[in-house]
Amino acid sequence: MRIETAHRDQLQQWEKDLEQQYQRICQHNLSLDLTRGKPAADQLSLSDSLDGILTGDYRAPDGTDTRNYGGLEGIAASRELGADILQVPFEEVLAGGNSSLTLMYHAVLTGYLFGFAGNQPWKDMSAPKFLCPVPGYDRHFTICEQLGITMDTVPMTATGPDMDVLEQKIREDDQIIGLWCVPKFSNPTGVTYDEDAVNRLAQLGKIANPGFRIFWDNAYAIHDLDHQVILPNIREAALSNDTADSVLQFASTSKVTHAGAGVAFVSASPANLASIKQQMSAMTIGPDKVNQLRHSRLFPELTQLKEHMQKHAEILRPKFACVLEHLDKNFADTDLGEWEKPQGGYFVSFNTRPGVASEVIRLSAEAGVKLTPAGATFPYGKDPENTNIRIAPSFPPLEELDTAMAVFTLCVKLATVREALANA
Protein backbone atom coordinates (compact mmCIF):
# COMPACT_ATOMS: atom_id res chain seq x y z
CA MET A 1 0.00 0.00 0.00
CA ARG A 2 1.47 3.31 -1.13
CA ILE A 3 -0.67 6.37 -0.49
CA GLU A 4 1.20 8.77 -2.75
CA THR A 5 0.51 6.77 -5.91
CA ALA A 6 -2.97 5.47 -5.08
CA HIS A 7 -6.05 6.51 -7.07
CA ARG A 8 -9.22 7.57 -5.29
CA ASP A 9 -11.05 4.34 -6.17
CA GLN A 10 -8.18 2.34 -4.67
CA LEU A 11 -8.32 4.42 -1.50
CA GLN A 12 -12.06 3.90 -1.24
CA GLN A 13 -11.70 0.13 -1.58
CA TRP A 14 -8.90 0.05 0.98
CA GLU A 15 -10.99 2.09 3.36
CA LYS A 16 -13.93 -0.30 2.98
CA ASP A 17 -11.80 -3.41 3.57
CA LEU A 18 -9.94 -1.90 6.53
CA GLU A 19 -13.18 -0.68 8.12
CA GLN A 20 -14.58 -4.21 8.02
CA GLN A 21 -11.45 -5.59 9.70
CA TYR A 22 -11.58 -2.81 12.28
CA GLN A 23 -15.21 -3.47 13.20
CA ARG A 24 -14.46 -7.17 13.70
CA ILE A 25 -11.63 -6.30 16.09
CA CYS A 26 -13.80 -3.86 18.04
CA GLN A 27 -16.20 -6.71 18.79
CA HIS A 28 -13.47 -8.50 20.77
CA ASN A 29 -13.70 -5.99 23.66
CA LEU A 30 -9.93 -5.83 24.11
CA SER A 31 -8.29 -4.01 27.02
CA LEU A 32 -4.56 -3.68 26.26
CA ASP A 33 -2.10 -0.99 27.37
CA LEU A 34 1.07 0.22 25.62
CA THR A 35 1.19 3.63 27.31
CA ARG A 36 4.11 3.54 29.77
CA GLY A 37 7.53 1.93 29.79
CA LYS A 38 7.01 -0.09 32.95
CA PRO A 39 8.94 -3.30 33.68
CA ALA A 40 6.84 -6.45 33.43
CA ALA A 41 6.21 -8.61 36.48
CA ASP A 42 8.80 -11.20 35.42
CA GLN A 43 11.39 -8.42 35.21
CA LEU A 44 10.53 -7.21 38.69
CA SER A 45 10.78 -10.78 39.99
CA LEU A 46 14.45 -10.85 39.02
CA SER A 47 15.11 -8.68 42.08
CA ASP A 48 12.86 -10.36 44.63
CA SER A 49 15.93 -11.50 46.57
CA LEU A 50 16.15 -7.90 47.83
CA ASP A 51 13.52 -9.00 50.34
CA GLY A 52 15.47 -10.37 53.28
CA ILE A 53 18.88 -9.88 51.72
CA LEU A 54 20.18 -7.99 54.79
CA THR A 55 19.37 -10.89 57.19
CA GLY A 56 19.34 -8.49 60.12
CA ASP A 57 22.72 -6.94 59.32
CA TYR A 58 22.13 -3.23 58.72
CA ARG A 59 25.75 -2.15 58.82
CA ALA A 60 27.22 -0.69 55.64
CA PRO A 61 30.78 -1.75 54.74
CA ASP A 62 32.12 1.43 56.35
CA GLY A 63 30.28 0.66 59.60
CA THR A 64 27.33 3.04 59.09
CA ASP A 65 24.12 1.91 60.81
CA THR A 66 21.74 2.41 57.91
CA ARG A 67 18.68 2.34 60.18
CA ASN A 68 19.47 5.76 61.62
CA TYR A 69 19.31 9.36 60.51
CA GLY A 70 21.97 11.17 58.49
CA GLY A 71 24.04 10.62 55.40
CA LEU A 72 22.65 13.23 53.00
CA GLU A 73 24.86 11.95 50.16
CA GLY A 74 23.79 8.30 50.63
CA ILE A 75 25.95 5.43 51.79
CA ALA A 76 29.34 4.97 50.17
CA ALA A 77 28.52 1.53 48.77
CA SER A 78 25.46 2.92 46.95
CA ARG A 79 27.37 5.90 45.61
CA GLU A 80 29.94 3.45 44.23
CA LEU A 81 27.13 1.65 42.40
CA GLY A 82 26.01 4.94 40.87
CA ALA A 83 29.58 5.75 39.90
CA ASP A 84 29.83 2.39 38.10
CA ILE A 85 26.61 3.00 36.19
CA LEU A 86 27.53 6.53 35.12
CA GLN A 87 31.27 5.88 34.78
CA VAL A 88 32.24 8.80 37.00
CA PRO A 89 34.28 9.18 40.22
CA PHE A 90 32.63 8.08 43.46
CA GLU A 91 33.25 11.52 45.00
CA GLU A 92 31.00 13.17 42.42
CA VAL A 93 27.92 11.00 43.07
CA LEU A 94 24.97 11.48 45.41
CA ALA A 95 22.63 8.51 45.99
CA GLY A 96 19.00 9.26 46.79
CA GLY A 97 15.60 7.60 46.85
CA ASN A 98 13.86 5.51 44.24
CA SER A 99 13.32 8.18 41.57
CA SER A 100 15.82 10.01 39.37
CA LEU A 101 12.87 12.20 38.33
CA THR A 102 12.76 13.49 41.91
CA LEU A 103 16.47 14.36 41.75
CA MET A 104 15.99 16.07 38.39
CA TYR A 105 13.06 18.08 39.70
CA HIS A 106 15.09 19.08 42.75
CA ALA A 107 18.03 20.10 40.56
CA VAL A 108 15.83 22.23 38.29
CA LEU A 109 14.26 23.80 41.37
CA THR A 110 17.72 24.54 42.77
CA GLY A 111 18.69 26.34 39.57
CA TYR A 112 15.38 28.15 39.41
CA LEU A 113 15.24 29.38 43.01
CA PHE A 114 18.89 29.70 43.99
CA GLY A 115 21.16 29.24 40.96
CA PHE A 116 24.09 26.85 40.62
CA ALA A 117 27.60 27.53 41.84
CA GLY A 118 26.99 31.19 42.60
CA ASN A 119 25.24 31.97 39.31
CA GLN A 120 22.04 34.00 39.01
CA PRO A 121 18.80 32.18 39.96
CA TRP A 122 16.83 31.44 36.83
CA LYS A 123 13.70 33.02 38.30
CA ASP A 124 15.45 36.39 38.27
CA MET A 125 16.00 36.21 34.50
CA SER A 126 13.54 37.84 32.13
CA ALA A 127 12.63 34.65 30.21
CA PRO A 128 14.47 31.47 31.31
CA LYS A 129 14.28 28.78 28.66
CA PHE A 130 15.11 25.08 28.22
CA LEU A 131 15.98 23.41 24.93
CA CYS A 132 14.21 20.10 24.35
CA PRO A 133 15.29 17.59 21.68
CA VAL A 134 12.12 16.16 20.14
CA PRO A 135 10.57 13.73 20.21
CA GLY A 136 11.49 13.49 23.88
CA TYR A 137 10.44 12.51 27.41
CA ASP A 138 7.13 14.01 28.56
CA ARG A 139 8.04 14.14 32.25
CA HIS A 140 10.99 16.41 31.50
CA PHE A 141 8.59 18.79 29.82
CA THR A 142 6.18 18.65 32.77
CA ILE A 143 8.90 19.90 35.14
CA CYS A 144 9.53 22.98 33.00
CA GLU A 145 5.85 23.61 32.41
CA GLN A 146 5.04 23.49 36.12
CA LEU A 147 7.75 26.06 36.91
CA GLY A 148 6.83 28.31 34.01
CA ILE A 149 10.13 27.74 32.21
CA THR A 150 9.66 28.24 28.47
CA MET A 151 10.59 25.32 26.22
CA ASP A 152 12.00 25.45 22.71
CA THR A 153 12.49 22.37 20.54
CA VAL A 154 15.53 20.99 18.73
CA PRO A 155 15.13 18.17 16.17
CA MET A 156 16.61 14.77 16.97
CA THR A 157 18.80 13.05 14.38
CA ALA A 158 20.16 9.50 14.17
CA THR A 159 23.23 10.58 16.17
CA GLY A 160 21.71 12.92 18.75
CA PRO A 161 20.24 16.44 18.76
CA ASP A 162 20.74 18.56 15.66
CA MET A 163 23.83 20.29 16.97
CA ASP A 164 23.90 23.03 14.32
CA VAL A 165 20.41 24.14 15.33
CA LEU A 166 21.14 23.75 19.04
CA GLU A 167 24.36 25.76 18.97
CA GLN A 168 22.76 28.52 16.92
CA LYS A 169 19.88 28.86 19.38
CA ILE A 170 22.28 29.12 22.33
CA ARG A 171 24.44 31.73 20.58
CA GLU A 172 21.39 33.84 19.80
CA ASP A 173 19.62 33.61 23.16
CA ASP A 174 21.36 34.07 26.53
CA GLN A 175 18.10 33.22 28.30
CA ILE A 176 18.64 29.54 27.51
CA ILE A 177 19.62 27.99 30.83
CA GLY A 178 18.93 24.28 30.37
CA LEU A 179 18.96 21.35 27.96
CA TRP A 180 17.23 18.00 28.43
CA CYS A 181 19.07 14.94 27.14
CA VAL A 182 18.39 11.19 27.24
CA PRO A 183 21.72 10.30 25.65
CA LYS A 184 21.57 6.51 25.42
CA PHE A 185 18.58 4.75 23.84
CA SER A 186 16.82 8.09 23.89
CA ASN A 187 13.18 8.20 24.96
CA PRO A 188 11.43 7.52 22.64
CA THR A 189 13.63 7.26 19.53
CA GLY A 190 16.20 4.77 20.88
CA VAL A 191 19.04 6.91 19.49
CA THR A 192 22.42 6.92 21.25
CA TYR A 193 24.44 10.12 20.97
CA ASP A 194 27.66 9.71 19.01
CA GLU A 195 31.10 11.11 19.87
CA ASP A 196 30.70 14.24 17.81
CA ALA A 197 27.41 15.14 19.48
CA VAL A 198 28.78 14.52 22.98
CA ASN A 199 31.92 16.57 22.30
CA ARG A 200 29.90 19.47 20.92
CA LEU A 201 27.48 19.29 23.85
CA ALA A 202 30.45 19.45 26.22
CA GLN A 203 31.53 22.71 24.57
CA LEU A 204 28.19 24.47 25.06
CA GLY A 205 29.33 25.84 28.41
CA LYS A 206 31.76 28.07 26.50
CA ILE A 207 29.03 29.89 24.56
CA ALA A 208 26.00 29.64 26.88
CA ASN A 209 24.82 31.68 29.84
CA PRO A 210 27.11 30.90 32.86
CA GLY A 211 24.11 29.38 34.63
CA PHE A 212 23.37 26.99 31.75
CA ARG A 213 23.15 23.29 32.66
CA ILE A 214 22.77 20.10 30.61
CA PHE A 215 20.42 17.65 32.33
CA TRP A 216 21.95 14.35 31.22
CA ASP A 217 19.24 11.80 32.04
CA ASN A 218 21.10 8.54 31.45
CA ALA A 219 18.05 6.43 32.30
CA TYR A 220 19.05 3.54 30.01
CA ALA A 221 22.80 3.50 30.66
CA ILE A 222 22.87 -0.30 31.12
CA HIS A 223 19.71 -1.33 29.24
CA ASP A 224 21.28 -2.91 26.14
CA LEU A 225 19.29 -5.59 24.30
CA ASP A 226 21.84 -7.50 22.21
CA HIS A 227 25.30 -6.03 22.68
CA GLN A 228 26.77 -3.17 24.66
CA VAL A 229 26.39 0.19 22.99
CA ILE A 230 29.08 2.62 24.13
CA LEU A 231 27.99 6.15 25.00
CA PRO A 232 30.89 8.65 24.99
CA ASN A 233 31.64 9.97 28.48
CA ILE A 234 30.19 13.47 28.85
CA ARG A 235 32.16 14.18 32.02
CA GLU A 236 35.51 13.49 30.35
CA ALA A 237 34.51 15.61 27.36
CA ALA A 238 33.44 18.47 29.64
CA LEU A 239 36.65 18.30 31.67
CA SER A 240 38.73 18.53 28.51
CA ASN A 241 36.78 21.66 27.57
CA ASP A 242 36.85 23.18 31.07
CA THR A 243 33.04 23.07 31.23
CA ALA A 244 32.51 20.49 34.00
CA ASP A 245 30.03 22.76 35.79
CA SER A 246 27.71 22.72 32.76
CA VAL A 247 26.70 19.05 33.18
CA LEU A 248 24.40 17.28 35.66
CA GLN A 249 24.05 13.50 35.19
CA PHE A 250 21.23 11.28 36.45
CA ALA A 251 20.51 7.54 36.61
CA SER A 252 18.57 5.06 38.71
CA THR A 253 17.77 1.40 39.28
CA SER A 254 14.05 1.97 38.62
CA LYS A 255 14.17 -0.35 35.58
CA VAL A 256 16.90 -2.53 37.09
CA THR A 257 15.41 -3.79 40.37
CA HIS A 258 11.99 -2.96 41.83
CA ALA A 259 10.74 0.08 39.93
CA GLY A 260 9.02 1.61 42.95
CA ALA A 261 11.80 0.82 45.41
CA GLY A 262 15.07 1.52 43.66
CA VAL A 263 17.94 3.97 44.14
CA ALA A 264 18.54 7.13 42.11
CA PHE A 265 21.81 8.95 41.48
CA VAL A 266 22.99 12.42 40.51
CA SER A 267 26.56 13.10 39.46
CA ALA A 268 27.97 16.59 39.08
CA SER A 269 30.99 18.77 39.62
CA PRO A 270 31.90 19.60 43.24
CA ALA A 271 30.47 23.12 42.83
CA ASN A 272 27.15 21.82 41.48
CA LEU A 273 26.87 19.11 44.13
CA ALA A 274 27.45 21.72 46.82
CA SER A 275 24.52 23.76 45.48
CA ILE A 276 22.27 20.69 45.35
CA LYS A 277 23.20 19.51 48.84
CA GLN A 278 22.77 22.97 50.35
CA GLN A 279 19.13 23.08 49.28
CA MET A 280 18.52 19.37 49.92
CA SER A 281 19.69 19.68 53.53
CA ALA A 282 16.64 21.83 54.26
CA MET A 283 14.34 19.20 52.78
CA THR A 284 15.62 15.92 54.22
CA ILE A 285 17.97 14.45 56.81
CA GLY A 286 18.90 11.65 54.45
CA PRO A 287 17.62 9.02 52.01
CA ASP A 288 16.48 5.45 52.66
CA LYS A 289 19.89 4.01 53.48
CA VAL A 290 18.47 0.58 54.29
CA ASN A 291 17.23 0.24 50.72
CA GLN A 292 20.54 1.53 49.41
CA LEU A 293 22.32 -1.17 51.41
CA ARG A 294 19.99 -3.82 49.99
CA HIS A 295 21.03 -2.80 46.50
CA SER A 296 24.73 -2.77 47.30
CA ARG A 297 24.38 -6.33 48.67
CA LEU A 298 22.56 -7.45 45.51
CA PHE A 299 25.23 -5.84 43.30
CA PRO A 300 28.52 -5.89 45.21
CA GLU A 301 30.42 -5.49 41.94
CA LEU A 302 29.65 -4.23 38.43
CA THR A 303 29.87 -7.83 37.18
CA GLN A 304 26.74 -8.84 39.09
CA LEU A 305 24.89 -5.80 37.78
CA LYS A 306 25.74 -6.65 34.17
CA GLU A 307 24.66 -10.27 34.63
CA HIS A 308 21.39 -9.04 36.08
CA MET A 309 20.78 -6.75 33.09
CA GLN A 310 21.39 -9.61 30.69
CA LYS A 311 18.39 -11.35 32.28
CA HIS A 312 16.30 -8.24 31.65
CA ALA A 313 17.44 -8.24 28.03
CA GLU A 314 16.36 -11.87 27.60
CA ILE A 315 12.84 -10.91 28.67
CA LEU A 316 12.65 -7.72 26.62
CA ARG A 317 14.30 -8.95 23.42
CA PRO A 318 11.32 -10.98 22.09
CA LYS A 319 8.95 -8.10 22.86
CA PHE A 320 10.95 -5.61 20.83
CA ALA A 321 11.26 -8.23 18.10
CA CYS A 322 7.46 -8.60 18.09
CA VAL A 323 6.92 -4.86 17.63
CA LEU A 324 9.51 -4.57 14.88
CA GLU A 325 8.20 -7.65 13.10
CA HIS A 326 4.71 -6.16 12.91
CA LEU A 327 6.06 -2.83 11.66
CA ASP A 328 8.28 -4.50 9.04
CA LYS A 329 5.52 -6.81 7.86
CA ASN A 330 2.96 -4.05 7.45
CA PHE A 331 4.97 -0.99 6.50
CA ALA A 332 8.38 -2.01 5.09
CA ASP A 333 7.37 -1.39 1.46
CA THR A 334 4.87 1.39 2.06
CA ASP A 335 4.85 5.13 2.68
CA LEU A 336 2.58 4.85 5.72
CA GLY A 337 5.21 5.41 8.40
CA GLU A 338 8.80 5.40 9.62
CA TRP A 339 10.35 3.98 12.77
CA GLU A 340 13.61 3.38 14.59
CA LYS A 341 15.06 -0.04 15.43
CA PRO A 342 16.49 0.54 18.91
CA GLN A 343 19.32 -1.54 20.33
CA GLY A 344 18.14 -1.02 23.89
CA GLY A 345 16.00 1.09 26.18
CA TYR A 346 12.24 0.81 26.57
CA PHE A 347 10.53 2.31 23.52
CA VAL A 348 9.98 2.19 19.79
CA SER A 349 9.25 5.52 18.11
CA PHE A 350 6.88 5.43 15.13
CA ASN A 351 6.12 8.36 12.83
CA THR A 352 2.93 8.33 10.80
CA ARG A 353 2.33 10.50 7.78
CA PRO A 354 1.66 14.14 8.79
CA GLY A 355 -1.64 14.77 10.53
CA VAL A 356 -2.46 11.13 11.29
CA ALA A 357 -1.05 10.22 14.74
CA SER A 358 -3.93 11.49 16.88
CA GLU A 359 -6.48 9.56 14.78
CA VAL A 360 -4.39 6.38 15.03
CA ILE A 361 -4.42 6.73 18.81
CA ARG A 362 -8.18 7.41 18.87
CA LEU A 363 -8.98 4.40 16.69
CA SER A 364 -6.68 2.18 18.74
CA ALA A 365 -8.35 3.26 21.97
CA GLU A 366 -11.81 2.50 20.59
CA ALA A 367 -10.54 -0.94 19.58
CA GLY A 368 -9.22 -1.53 23.11
CA VAL A 369 -5.53 -0.62 22.81
CA LYS A 370 -4.29 2.36 24.83
CA LEU A 371 -1.32 4.34 23.53
CA THR A 372 0.52 7.39 24.83
CA PRO A 373 -1.49 10.51 23.86
CA ALA A 374 -0.57 12.21 20.63
CA GLY A 375 1.84 15.05 21.25
CA ALA A 376 3.12 13.63 24.54
CA THR A 377 6.67 13.46 23.19
CA PHE A 378 6.68 17.23 22.52
CA PRO A 379 6.59 20.21 24.91
CA TYR A 380 3.10 21.35 25.86
CA GLY A 381 1.71 18.17 24.25
CA LYS A 382 1.85 19.75 20.79
CA ASP A 383 3.43 17.76 17.99
CA PRO A 384 3.38 20.31 15.14
CA GLU A 385 3.22 17.61 12.46
CA ASN A 386 0.94 15.26 14.46
CA THR A 387 3.13 12.28 13.52
CA ASN A 388 4.95 10.78 16.50
CA ILE A 389 3.67 7.79 18.48
CA ARG A 390 5.65 6.20 21.31
CA ILE A 391 5.21 2.43 21.62
CA ALA A 392 6.08 0.85 24.98
CA PRO A 393 6.50 -2.95 24.58
CA SER A 394 7.84 -3.89 28.02
CA PHE A 395 4.82 -4.30 30.27
CA PRO A 396 2.25 -6.56 28.52
CA PRO A 397 2.78 -10.30 28.08
CA LEU A 398 4.08 -11.25 24.63
CA GLU A 399 0.74 -12.67 23.47
CA GLU A 400 -1.10 -9.45 24.39
CA LEU A 401 1.62 -7.35 22.77
CA ASP A 402 1.24 -9.33 19.55
CA THR A 403 -2.51 -8.65 19.54
CA ALA A 404 -2.01 -4.97 20.38
CA MET A 405 0.43 -4.51 17.50
CA ALA A 406 -1.98 -6.15 15.06
CA VAL A 407 -4.59 -3.60 16.14
CA PHE A 408 -2.10 -0.74 15.97
CA THR A 409 -0.94 -1.49 12.43
CA LEU A 410 -4.52 -1.80 11.24
CA CYS A 411 -5.38 1.56 12.79
CA VAL A 412 -2.38 3.19 11.11
CA LYS A 413 -3.61 1.95 7.74
CA LEU A 414 -7.22 2.97 8.31
CA ALA A 415 -6.37 6.44 9.64
CA THR A 416 -3.91 7.07 6.81
CA VAL A 417 -6.33 6.03 4.07
CA ARG A 418 -9.08 8.18 5.56
CA GLU A 419 -6.73 11.17 5.76
CA ALA A 420 -5.77 10.65 2.14
CA LEU A 421 -9.42 10.44 1.04
CA ALA A 422 -10.24 13.61 2.97
CA ASN A 423 -7.53 15.47 1.08
CA ALA A 424 -7.96 13.80 -2.32
TrEMBL record:
Molecular function in Gene Ontology: L-aspartate:2-oxoglutarate aminotransferase activity
Key word Nucleus present? no
Q: Which InterPro entries match?
A: AspAT_Ic, PyrdxlP-dep_Trfase, PyrdxlP-dep_Trfase_major, PyrdxlP-dep_Trfase_small
The record's keywords, sorted A to Z, are: Aminotransferase, Transferase
Instruction: List the Gene3D superfamilies.
Output: Aspartate Aminotransferase, domain 1, Type I PLP-dependent aspartate aminotransferase-like (Major domain)
The superkingdom of the source organism is Bacteria
Q: By its UniProt entry, which Pfam families does this protein fall under? A: Asp_aminotransf
Please give the name of this protein.
Answer: Aminotransferase
